[in-house]
Amino acid sequence: MTEQATEQKVAEAQTAALELAKLDDGVRSAALHDVADAIEANHERVLEANAKDVEEAEELLEAGEYSRALVDRLELSASKLDDIAEMVRSVAEQDDPLGETLEARRLDDDLELYKVGVPIGVIGTVFESRPDALVQIAALSLKSGNAVILKGGSEASHSNRVLYELVREATADVPDGWAQLIEAREDVTTLLGMDDAVDLLMPRGSSEFVSYIQNNTSIPVLGHTEGVCHVFVDSEADLSMAEDVAFDAKVQYPAVCNAVETLLVHEAVAEDFLPAMVDRYRDADVTLRGDAGTRDVVDVDPATDEDWKTEYGDLELSIKVVDSLTAAIDHINAHGSKHTESIVTEDADRAGTFMRSIDAASVFHNASTRFADGYRYGLGAEVGISTGKIHARGPVGLEGLTTYKYHLEGDGQLVATYSGENAKPYLHEEFAGEWNPGHRSGTGE
């Protein structure tokens, strides 16, 4: 695709975004239900395209160019497609985030200020490997009234094209151009330079990939570079629970960013906990590495300094024995990626200290890190995980794809009235009210 063609697609998205901002939620939600129906009705079409991607990926896996984790993320199945359709319906059923009055303040009689939720505008997304990400991002963008530029990885090109076609075919009642697909690396370069037209970028992929996006654009970027997550088994843990949580966090789906990469164990329970835990991991083919304290209890390979900051994305795990709650907190804050951290303990005070002290988007008590997910949080779905602290943090759902603007409803008031020697004072009174065009709560209009 030429640079001009990419710019044209972004221009069409800009036009559509202005129309989407005014589109009734009933239309947006109905379109999403149509998307879900289309995915369910076209299993064969999608799986046939996906099989081509997987076949090509397996060849590259054998050549050593792809990892098994990437191929696993790429592959779709009938049950996965059903899950994708259910996710889209879940997004459709979420409350409309647009037009919501976030604050209402009376500046004076008949002069009322409303802070109202609105779409961000045009969102650019660049994602790798997982074709279901295309549908997730498109669904959340439509529900939140945003136009979206979709760029998937070349490894999923056949799957992405078919899923994009289904989305576009099912949303004929939505302003044309609201979703655009770009495919070439050159298209991404063009997109990254369009800070005058694209309002937000959301990359999903490896840490190197996300860092590249962040370093090559002046467009705001929402995302995370790594998912180095920890589970800490405290001295006051229920060890049976701890074993289940630590196993689920690593083994249930190791290729994703919320899987645990380092297991921390308090020295007071290490001898009771680690032998059975290590046996269970080994039965699941998990490759294990440990520090000296771990190797005093179980026979595992040595861990290096690099292991403590590595996102394996596979059946690999590093284990460290710590001598205190403080040591666990310090290790996580030093080596974690601010994604998701979990403590297993029966002591509420120790749990509270851990949760207040950890700098991460999500911090759990007695739960697997795998719960860090937009769908599981009840957000319908997510466009990704943000480990930043500005605008949106953690799983980014509909709220993270909106911003706000101020609507002021007056009756001919002038600033001069509130200035000078005889200035009239402002009321600045908060009140419960919803913005409606031309309506002022004090007049009943």
From TrEMBL:
Query: Quick one: where is this thing mainly located?
Result: cytoplasm
**Enzyme class per UniProt:** oxidoreductase
InterPro entries attached to this UniProt entry: Ald_DH/histidinol_DH, Ald_DH_C, Ald_DH_N, Aldehyde_DH_dom, G-glutamylP_reductase_CS, Glu-5-SA_DH, GPR_dom
Q: Where in the cell is it found?
A: Cytoplasm
What keywords is this UniProt entry annotated with? Answer: Amino-acid biosynthesis, Cytoplasm, NADP, Oxidoreductase, Proline biosynthesis
Pfam families membership: Aldedh
Q: Name one GO cellular component term.
A: cytoplasm
Q: What is this protein called?
A: Gamma-glutamyl phosphate reductase
Give the organism, scientific name: Haloplanus litoreus
